[in-house]
Amino acid sequence: MRNRLAAIVALVCLAAPALADTAAPAPPPRPNARNMKFPMQGGEAIYQGVCQGCHMPDAKGAVGAGAYPALAGNEKLIEGGYPIGVIMNGQKAMPPLGAMFSDTQIADVVNYIRTHFGNHYTDKVTAAEVKTMR
Amino acid sequence: MTDEITAPSRRSLLSMIGVVAGSAAMYHAMTELGYAEGSTFTGPIKLSQPPPGTSVLILGAGIAGMVSALELRDAGYKVQLLEYNDRPGGRNWTLYGGDTYTELGGFTQKVGFDPGQYINPGPWRLPYHHQGILHYVNRLGVALEPFTQVNYNAYVHSTEAFGGKPVRYRQIQADMHGHVAELLAKCTKQGALDKTVSKEDREILMLALRNWGALNGKFEYAKGLESSNRRGFDVDPGGGLNSVPVPSEPMAMSALLKSQLWTAIGASCNYEMQSAIFQPKGGMGMIGKAFGKELGPLIQYNSKVIDIHQDEKGVTATYVDSRTGGEKRTASADWCVCTIPASILSQIPMNVGEPMKAAINQLPYQAALKIGLQMKRRFWEQDDHIYGGHTYTNQPNQTISYPMWDYFSKGKGVLLGAYVFGEPAFVAAAKPPEERIKDALEYGSKIHPQYKEEFEAGVAVAWHRVPFTLGCAGAWTDAGRAQHYDNLCALDGRIVLAGEHASRIPAWQEGAVTSAIDAITRLHKRVMA
Questions:
Q1: Contact A28 B187 (CB under 8 A)
Q2: Do B175 and B231 belong to one domain?
C-alpha cells in the first residue's frame, strides 16, 4: 500500500511540470476519450472526413490571408513519399498528423489523392513504406 | 454541518509549509495563495520619446498589433497598421445576429440569431490574473461582467457511464473527494503512512481529510448530512413544516472511477479556470472594437500583405486589397512589428535570417470548433437550473456552455453547442457548416432533450477554415519550443514578431498582450541604442 501510494505521489509530481507549458487553452475534459485517432477507413472516407477541411472537397485548396495548396493536378505528388512525409510530419501551416493516423490510413489516403482530382500516379504506396518513415 | 476546524491564517499556514517542505514548496504555495505573481505584466509600460519621425509599420490589427500601436503611438512613434480583415480585433471577434461569415471554400453563413444574441468564436474568457489584457480593457472603457467557469450544477456526461445519463458536477467532485479522503484516512489509521508522515502531522491530516472530503465522525464518506452538504440532497432542507432534508446516496467509488467523469475536476482546477473570470458585456469583440476606435485612421483595413522586405534603411510591406486583389501597394517604415500568424507568415516572402524563418515554418495551428445555437427559451435555466458554466461530454461536441448574461431572461438564449479541440475539430472542419450544426444538435439532445424542440438558428466556426488565421492558435510542442521559441521572438534586423504564438500563454489574449509589450520594449531599446 505504502509503495503504491508513493508511486502515485511521484507520478503526480512528475506530471505537473510537464503539463505546464501546454496548459492553455485547456482542452475540455474528455471522459472516456478514445485514442484521438481518426476513425475513418479507406482513402476516400479519410479524404472527405479530414483532408477536405483545408484542401476542400474538390481538392483545389483555398486562398485567404494565406493559402491551402491544391492537391488537384499537383505535380509534387509524383513521388509518393512526399505526401507521406507531409501528412506525417506537417509542413508550415499543415499540422503533423502522423500520430492520429495508422500506417494503413496514411497509405490509403495518399493512394487516393494520387489517383484522383486529375492526378494519375498509379504506383501505390504501402503501409510498410509509411512505417519506415515514422 | 459547519466546518469544525478553524482555518489557520495564511501566514501561519505558509510558515508551516516552509518548515515542512522547504522553500520550493513554499514558493509554490505562495503562488497559489496569491503572494507571488504569475503574470509577466507589471503595469503599463512607459517608453521614452524616440527620435522625431521614427516610424513603425505594424502588420495585423489583432490584440498584439493594436497594443503595439497604442503604446508606440503614445511614446511618439509614427505608426501605421495593415489589417487583412475589414474590422479590428483579429481573433478577438464576436458574431452577432445578422452578421455574415464566409469561411475558406466559400461556405457562407448568415447568422440567424436575434439582434443582441451572439457567440465569441475565439477567445471568451479573461481570467483575473491576465492583468495585461485587463489593463487595456479598463483603459479603453470596455464594460465587463462575470464569466462562470465552474458551475456545480452543470453536467458531466459520458455515453459509456451511468446509462448515458448526465451527472451534476457537484456530485462528481464531492464523491471523488469523499472517496479519496476516506481511503487516505484508512491508510493513515492503518499505519500505512507512518514512515512518511509524522505522528503530529497524521493527526492534522485526519482532520484535513475530514474537512476536505466531507467525511463523517467515523471518517467515512457515507450517505448523510455531511456528504449531502457537498453533493446535494434528495430533498433540500426548507422552512416551516415538512422541512427536514433527505440526504442523497453517494455514487459507488468503482462506478465513479470507471466512468472517468472525474476528468472534469482537474480541468476545473487549472489556474486559468479559477474565479474570478470576466467577459466583456456584449461580446469579446468589444475589446477589438474599442481598440479600433482608439486607433482610428492608423489602421488600414482590407490589406493583404504579400511581401515583407527589410534593408539597412527600413522595412517595406507590399500588399493588395484583400477583397479584390488589384494593384500592389507598399507601406514603409523604419521598423516593423509583425503580428501575422505563423501559419500565414510562413507563406509570405520575408527576408529574415534562417533561425527566425525556421521558427515560423515549424509552427502549425490547432484545430478548434465553436458552434452557437439559438434556442427559443432558456430551458437550461428554467428546467435544469443551470445558470452559466459548462457541461462536459465524451461526445464529439465535448463542451456545452450556457450564456453568461441575461440570466432569468424570459426570451431566447444562445448556447455554445460545441467547443472542440483535437481530432473531432478536424473532422468538423471537413463538413459543411449546416452538418456541423446538425451534429451538435444530435449530441446536445442526449443531454438536453429540449434541444430539438427549442432550436432556431446556428452558426459554426471551424478554425482551420478561418481565412485570416488558418487555424486557432500556434500548436507548440515542447521540443519545438526548446529549439525555436527564442528565435521566433528575437529581433531580426528591423523586424520583430508578436502575438499569442510568440508567448508562453498560447491561444490566450494575455499571450498576445505580453508578447507585444516585450517585443516593442526590445524594439524601443534598439531604436534608442
A1: no
A2: yes
Mean pLDDT, residues B23-34: 41
Asked if residue B7 belongs to a domain, the reply is: no
CB contact under 8 A, A53 and B340: no
Distance of CA B225 to the CA centre of its chain: 36
C-alpha cell belonging to residue B348: 509570405
- CB distance A31–B393 less than 8 Å? yes
| Cα-based torsion angle of the residue sequence B123, B127, B130, B131 in order, rounded to the nearest 10 degrees | 120
Q: Least CB-CB distance to A53: which of B393, B464, B469?
A: B464
Scanning every residue of chain B, which has its alpha carbon at the shortest distance from the alpha carbon of A19?
B478
For the ranges B3-17, B403-417, B429-443, which has the lowest average pLDDT?
B3-17
| B237 to chain A, closest Cα gap in Å | 32
Among A92, A100, A109, most B C-beta atoms within 10 A, so best to mutate, is A92
- Give the range of the structural domain holding residue B105, as residue numbers without chain letter: 95-153+276-283+366-465
For chain A, give every domain's residue range.
Answer: 41-133
ipTM for the predicted complex comes to 0.88
CATH fold of A41-133 reads Cytochrome Bc1 Complex; Chain D, domain 2 (1.10.760)
At B383-392, the pLDDT tens digits run 999 999 999 9
Q: What are the cell numbers at B423?
A: 481530432
B344 interface with A at CB cutoff 8 Å: yes
* Per-residue pLDDT tens over the stretch B475-501: 999 999 999 999 999 999 999 999 999
The residue-averaged pLDDT of B157-173 equals: 97
Out of A28, A38, A68, the one facing B419 most closely (by C-beta) is A28
What are the angstrom distances between the C-alpha of B153 and each of B166, B231, B348?
A: 11, 10, 49
SS3 content of chain B, % helix, strand, coil (to 5): 40, 20, 40
